[in-house]
Amino acid sequence: MMMIELVWFGCCLAFVYGNGLADVVIPCSLLEVGGMGHSALLSKTPATLIFKDVLVGSGEALETITPFVPPSPPDPDAILIEAKVSSPQIPHANLLLHADCNEQEVVCELSHFFTHESSESSDPAYFMVSLAVEGVEFSTTLVLETLTMKKNESALIQNKLGLPLSPMGTLLTEVIFLVFSDKKSVSAPLRSEVVLTCRFKQPAIPLAQEVGIEWRMQHRGKGEKVLEMKTRLDDADGSSVVHAERGGSTVDATRVVKDGDASVTLSDVKVVDEGTYICTVTVGPLHGQQAIRLHITQPPHVFLSKEKLYFKSESSQTLSCHSTKYYPLDVQMEWLFISPTDKEPLLFPDQGSLSSHRQHGDGTYSLTSHLSVPSTVSAGTKIICRVTHLDPHITLSVSLVVECRQPDSYWWVLGFLIITTLFFMQVMR
Predict the structure, then answer these.
(1) I want to staple 201 with a disulfide (CB 3.0 to 4.6 A). Which of 88, 169, 410, 420 is the partner?
(2) Contacts of 196 by beta carbon, 8 Å cutoff, 6+ apart
(3) For residues 286 and 131, what is the distance between their CA atoms, to the nearest angstrom?
(4) Distance CA 302, CA 378 (A)
(5) What pLDDT is stored for residue 14 in this prediction?
(6) How far is CA 382 from CA 268, 309, 404, in A?
(7) Which residues contact 286 (CB under 8 A, 6 or more apart)?
(8) Number of C-alpha atoms within 13 angstroms, CB side, residue 391?
(9) 301-401 is classed in which CATH architecture?
(10) Backbone angles phi, psi at 45, to 5 degrees
(11) How do residues 354-381 score in pLDDT, each as one tens digit?
(12) What whole-number distance in Å separates Cα of residue 302 and Cα of residue 331?
């Protein structure tokens, strides 16, 4: 006899079966746009999404608490969408199971989806679902298709959607297409190669043979196409059509066909490549999107204006610390010292002055800090310039040690002449 566990995860409910399948219940919002033009308003209606037969693996150890119970009698005002998940399966479904236990919010947004061939009154109806787990590098977009149900006089109709409900009061659907990414944010150094992940799944029997991949980049209100590909799942001759707007951007057509992998590779990334990349996968009449944020980072090169520091007189000397060719702009510079009798570095009371930020042609920045070192600083004191960029726990430091005071060149020359004169006088005797 098959064992069944009923588990309630705060906001997420899971019915876990002995075969590693689970039914997961997630609170959701139905998004609708009302009005026209500038007066259009976005409304949100509470909904509940029930994923059926989600593959979570047999290793899940879940304790029995409280099961989800649909309203009895069925409520035609409640939006309960039951989605069958068999093929394709939802990737990383365990994240949904454990989100509440890990104090992570599951963001679920639901909206009507219309293909070129469908309309508001068409049967079946389609819905698009966007799922993301807070604090986790994973998100997915799913397309749900309603299962055929006879509209008869005794059938219960959902009041807002106008669609027939099951005897349990749920709208029966199945997942037929999904696009997902396990990296919503990527950081890459300048001039490196970076991969932005985007994958898709569809039923074992494909919805269509034609697949379209488009990558676009948006940054500061501007958008541009990066790459577009058209191929076929039965493409044995390798006749894919690829148009790359950005040089050095590629999508592997073989992996698109074989693995559903639409990831794009960007080579030699620059500051201008930073932005939000939108991956759109189209299969037949359906499409889904994922957005991946690309951050460009470059640590600064730090160096001092002098290799040695010693005082010739009682006047102070200026020591400069140069932080160059870094990105982004966020940088902090500070001066410290360790005297021969100290064990830990101390901040200079006077931190000197900063130059203005200078931007180079490649988009990177430079900054200089000038420190006035008083002559009272004793020999053997170590002066440190410490630079923090992005991560406050990672710093770059350069330093020098103050050397013994050297005599003024005038007195040194005079002393040399006196000694030389005395030497010759002794020789001439």
Answers:
(1) 88
(2) 181, 183, 186, 215, 263, 264, 266, 277, 279, 292, 294
(3) 18
(4) 25
(5) 53
(6) 39, 10, 12
(7) 115, 126, 143, 176, 177, 207
(8) 8
(9) Sandwich (2.60)
(10) -120, 130
(11) 999 999 999 999 999 999 999 888 889 9
(12) 12
Q: Which of 224, 200, 195, 229 is nearest to 213 (CA)?
A: 229
Residue 357 near residue 325 (C-beta atoms within 8 A): no
User: Residue 310 is which amino acid?
Assistant: Y
Report the Cα 278 to chain-centroid distance in Å.
12
Q: Tell me the one-letter amino acid at 328.
A: P
In this structure, are residues 25 and 56 in contact, taking their beta carbons and an 8 Å threshold?
A: no
CA angle (181 as vertex; 180, 182 as ends), nearest 5: 130
Over residues 306-350, the pLDDT tens digits come to: 988 888 777 889 999 999 999 999 899 999 999 998 889 999 999
Helices (H), 147-285: 253-259
Residues with Cβ within 8 Å of 241's Cβ and at least 6 positions away in sequence, in order, are 229, 230, 231
pLDDT 10s digits, 48-57: 998 887 776 6
Q: Are 320 and 307 in contact (CB under 8 A)?
A: no
Superfamily for the 183-297 domain: Immunoglobulins (2.60.40.10)
Q: Is 146 within 8 Å of 189 (Cβ atoms)?
A: no
Alpha carbon 393 to chain centroid, angstroms: 20
Tokens of 307: 């290799």
User: Apex CA 402: angle with CA 352 and CA 317, to 5°?
Assistant: 40
Give me the DSSP letters along 4-30.
Answer: EEEEEETTEEEEEETTSEEEEEEEEEE
Closest by CA to 111, choosing from 262, 288, 285, is: 288
**Could you give the CA distance from residue 396 to residue 300 in angstroms, rounded to a whole number?**
8
Q: How far is CA 114 from CA 34, 52, 111, 295, in A?
A: 16, 23, 10, 34
Is residue 288 over pLDDT 50?
Answer: yes
d(CA 50, CA 23): 7
Please answer whether residues 375 and 311 qualify as being in contact, where contact means their C-beta atoms are separated by less than 8 angstroms: yes
Structure pTM? 0.82
Domain ranges of the chain: 1-177, 183-297, 301-401
Residue type, 14: A
